[in-house]
Amino acid sequence: QVQLVESGGGLVQAGGSLRLSCTAPARLFKINNMGWFREVPGEEREFVAAISWAGVDTYFRDSVKGRFTISRDYSNNTVYLQMNNLKPEDTAVYYCTSERIDPSVWGRLTLTSFIHWGRGTQVVVFP
Predict the structure, then answer these.
(1) 17 vs 20: CA distance, rounded Å
(2) Tens digit of each residue's pLDDT (9 = 90 or more) over 24-40
(3) Cβ-contact 114, 96 below 8 angstroms
(4) Within 10 Å of residue 106's Cβ, how many Cβ atoms?
(5) Strands, DSSP E only, in 29-126?
């Protein structure tokens, strides 16, 4: 079982920023695409952002484009999700994932396509 460890969640006022971090085992981080999903109680986990294994290509769901960025640091095997101009509808538990699947299609795949998940980090955005 791959161990992905998320951190950085918290409580923030609308318009504020948070940076989420996810650390993966080195042997997987170097070859896998990395990304983030989020889940609200009672709803299905949804794709948020992904970055290719080489760090060249990034992908976002429409509602976060222009506000969120994703990056990866090979020196510490960590992927970051920088979230700016947060909105109450961004409130969710954010989960990190690491897969070989082409990240350009992550938003169209069912969750059964993803095997490796972290435990999640809670983000709450209040008005």
Answers:
(1) 10
(2) 999 989 999 999 999 99
(3) no
(4) 22
(5) 33-39, 46-51, 58-60, 68-73, 78-83, 92-99, 121-126
